[in-house]
Amino acid sequence: CINLTPPSTLSSGQMSETNAAEADIMMCRRCASCGATEADDIKLKTCTGCKSARYCSIKCQKEHRSQHKRACKKRATELRDEVLFRQTEGTDCPICLLPMPLDPDKLAMISCCGRKICAGCEFANALREIEEGLKPTCPFCRLPAPRDDEKTWEENMKRRAVADDPAALQWMGISCQEKGDYNGAFEFWTRAAELGDSQSHYQLSVMYHGGHGVEMDEKKGIHHLEEAAIGGDIVARVDLGVLEQGKGRFERAEKHFTIAANLGCEDAK
To answer: How far apart are CA 188 and CA 73, in angstroms?
Structure first.
């Protein structure tokens, strides 16, 4: 915000800072190319890269591109790093609200509602049902527990996938991959990634890095790896640290390893 202290009471340094702040605000109110101000008949659109410069038309944006390109790229990188290196929170079990274990063998996925819970809550629910002589129910949604067979599981996952359940879409992608259907896996993981599933972003990064079912594309592979890490995927976070370390960018690698360690990853410590 602008310093509202009267100019007469400000030092020369404070005056320059105030003028700079005012200039920045005025710049946001004007087209960065022609200087037109926003009015009823002129709507300024923000640059999607730097989120700072604004333009009154596509023509002005194109004409200003040569002057703006370097600063835009620099600011866009800074904004991306702010998101990338923000400490993420681990996933909590939706029942006990404790952090989910990193060991996949200590997790349970329920096909009726597509929820992942910790093995402890699954065991506690089963023990309660045995002790009280109750019929088996889902620990989360409390509906009758689905039959524990492959056909029922797949039917439930398909039903949840149609409803755009990210966990079900991610599982369907794995199912397609195991059958050698990389196109199907790519489609399911892409849909799940669009819905914010970090594990699907990681799977897509593996596909792009290895050229499995898609053309190898390092840039897209890195993008999905970063999205997975931003979403809290610890494996993706450690992989990014290893990649940065291999490029000699040790400060960036340390940031990735620190975030992973704070999430409980022993290998990152």
So the answer is: 32
| ∠ CA 233-239-242, rounded to 5° | 145
**Cα gap 149→157, rounded to integer Å:** 12
Q: Which two tokens stand for residue 162?
A: 């149609």
Q: How far is CA 210 from CA 13, 180, 190, 218, in A?
A: 55, 15, 17, 9
* Unique residue bearing structure tokens 């291999």: 246
Residue 186 has pLDDT above 70, yes or no: yes
The b-or-e profile of 9-41 (16+ CB within 10 A means b, else e) is eeeeeeeeebeeeeeeeeeeebbbbeebeeeee
pTM: 0.76
Lookup: tokens for 12: 């020369």
Is residue 3 predicted with pLDDT exceeding 50?
A: no
For 61, the token pair is 């944006």
pLDDT digits (tens, 9 = 90+) for 206-259: 999 999 889 999 999 999 999 999 998 999 999 999 999 999 999 999 999 999
Category of 55 on φ-ψ map: left (φ > 0), alpha (ψ -120 to 50) or beta: beta
With H, G, I as helix, E, B as strand and everything else as coil, classify residue 132: helix
